[in-house]
Amino acid sequence: MQSLTFLCPPTFFDVTYSINPFMDPSVKVDRVLAWRQWIRFVDALEGRGLDLRFIEPCDGCPDMVFLGDAGLVLGDRFLCSRFRHRERQPEADHYTRAFGDLGYRVTHPPGPAVLEGLGDVTIWGDRAILGYGQRSNHDGFEAFRRFAPFVDVIAEVELPDPHFYHLATAVAFLDADTILFYPDAFTSSGRTQLERAVGRAIAVSQQDILDHQACNCLVVGDTVMMDGCSSGLERELAGCGFRVETYPMSEFRKGGGSLRRLVLPALSWPAQAAEAMAS
Hints:
alpha/beta; three-stranded mixed beta sheet; 15 strands; 28% helix; globular; disordered C terminus
């Protein structure tokens, strides 16, 4: 994860519609608890020295708190998401204005493209995994490749189950050659792709997915920040050199997300690519 990281406060966060199986408008969000959970998480990120920037929330866009879906930031450019569901489409105009006001050159995926930011692009350095089938599509991935041509896409996998509506709910990089993933979220072909693409693929149990959305975690250094964790997964991660810190996200899981969806970290050009761009 890069040090420059964007977030959006949960001022208007609520579950007022349903666009994934976790969202039930009859199950009320505890807004006070949501703020407490978000602030504790933000305080932890600040304590690790991350450069945090905040995007102003917009009334009528309750999912803006999940800023990881907003698009991708690279250098002085922002690739704004094109959302599949009409309920989230108004967010794009707000992101266009917000990042434009911050001085970013804003671009959009063309025509039929659907691209929901880091929701379906899991990235570490210059390596990325792409996920399609529920939200983002191949046209959206072409827009991403043009935006970040230095990235090596090591796997492009289908998400057949609507419970895993974004790739970020089913796989996460822990380092450049290690992923955390839930095998049953993918087709057999997708599982094979993932296992061949990295040196170490750590499988997550159904319990850790159902209880904690374990793959929607955030890695800072050797720390894996997650909603919660079974003792078995914690031991396995410790054996790989990672320690777990838990930040309960009960209210945000009502919207189908956890820690990873709350942040939009800026991408960085690799040194060689940056030098080429400057020459």
